[in-house]
Amino acid sequence: SRSHRIAVIPGDGIGTEVVPEGVRALRAAADAFGIGLDMVEYDFASAAYWQRHGTMLPEGWFDELKDYDALFLGAVGWPDVVPDHVSLWGSLLQFRRRFDQYANVRPVRLMPGVTSPLAGRGPGDIDFYVVRENTEGEYSSIGGRIFEGTERETVVQETVMTRTGVDRILRYAFELARGRERRKLTSATKSNGISQTMPYWDERVAAMAADHPDVAVDQYHIDILTAHFVLHPERFDVVVASNLFGDILSDLGPACAGTIGIAPSANINPERRYPSLFEPVHGSAPDIAGKGIANPVGQIWSASMMLDHLGEPEAAAAVLRAVEEVLAGDRAALTPDLGGSGTTASLGAAVAAAVKGAA
Ligand code: NAD
Ligand code: IPM
Ligand code: MN
């Protein structure tokens, strides 16, 4: 039978609570569809590892991980122990950059059974993708401080946009839009205030649009776009944005669709030269960590996206169907972010059981 090797990296906080539920759904899908999954768990990319070793990752991490078929990550960050920029630049952001996972694909969907905080919205009304540039842009290591400790103290951090980097994420987003019913692409920039990089992005959108006459294109400045996310979420189909703007939109979108606890993401290296990475959109949630009440659906939905990427579309669809079925079922069984009184484990177990039933 087919077999896939997966590195499992729980990370910090609720990452360690939701990853086992993602694994449980994966095992259920693997059993039901006759798929072999070889999952190897790693304790690095966590504050606990940092406390023991003084680094987030072992020296040989790149060679250790590069031959996996996929990486399955929980969340990284425990700011009481390691400053966030140190832990994230020492782990997740290295994975994205070194494995050239330049397309961060984040579906935003109002699911049956989930209530939107926006009035009058039901399932089907919100259904779009945020496609986020994931290797350059505002997340750059170019910059520094001068005149430290004086009144002239100055801090600079450059935004980097390369022709290759911008074109490849736009092409990915246009192709995604082309494959969807509405064939609509929205680009987010801020070309009135940011005078070099953002107009450049707009230029490349125009060039890419000329190559994709079948895709309807519009663009907004990021400020008003956030307002439209709240006021008119039904307008959007594929939203493409720079690294920072895509980060912001991919928390706002899921909040409009009920909870960030269910939002998944795929950090894709489309050329498949390196493993892609699958993780929920949310973080380690220190405020609820250790309580057993984190919503595991973002992790489980990410598992579905991973199965799809691994060439297992039936298993991927079964996991997503199971999620939909459980979300639409008894409200009390859901986690508190969805108004229920269930736990991470009880919700995860319900989804895994539904996966078995769906096969
Ligand atoms: P967060 O996403 O961890 O939490 C934001 C809020 O949403 C919190 O109130 C939290 O309780 C809630 N929440 C998040 N996930 C939930 C879930 N599955 N179920 C129920 N409620 C959920 O964002 P934050 O507080 O800004 O960040 C906390 C830490 O996580 C920081 O160290 C940050 O850098 C890190 N972080 C990591 C990732 C990642 O690894 N991909 C993503 C975002 C934040
Ligand atoms: C995300 C997170 C990360 C990001 C942080 C933790 C560096 O917010 O995956 O959305 O900004 O990309
Ligand atoms: Mn984010």
Descriptive notes:
Strand 1 (3-11), helix 1 and strand 2 form a beta-alpha-beta unit. A ten-stranded mixed sheet has the order 2-1-3-12-11-4-5-10-8-9, with helices on both faces. By secondary structure, the protein is of the alpha/beta class. The longest helix is centred in the N-terminal third of the chain and has 19 residues, at 15-33. The chain has helices spanning 15-33, 47-53, 61-65, 84-89, 92-98, 163-178, 197-211, 222-231, 243-256, 297-309, 313-328, 344-358, and strands at 3-11, 36-41, 70-75, 103-109, 127-133, 143-146, 154-157, 184-189, 216-221, 238-241, 264-268, 276-280. It is globular. The protein has two domains: 1-126 and 259-359, Isopropylmalate Dehydrogenase, CATH 3.40.718; 148-256, Rossmann fold. Helices cover 40% and strands 19% of the residues. The mean pLDDT is 97. It contains twelve helices and twelve strands. The protein binds nicotinamide-adenine-dinucleotide (NAD), 3-isopropylmalic acid (IPM) and manganese (II) ion. Nicotinamide-adenine-dinucleotide (NAD) binds at residues 14, 75-77, 79, 84, 88, 92, 260-261, 279, 282-288, 294-295, 298, 335, 337. Manganese (II) ion (MN) binds at residues 247, 251.
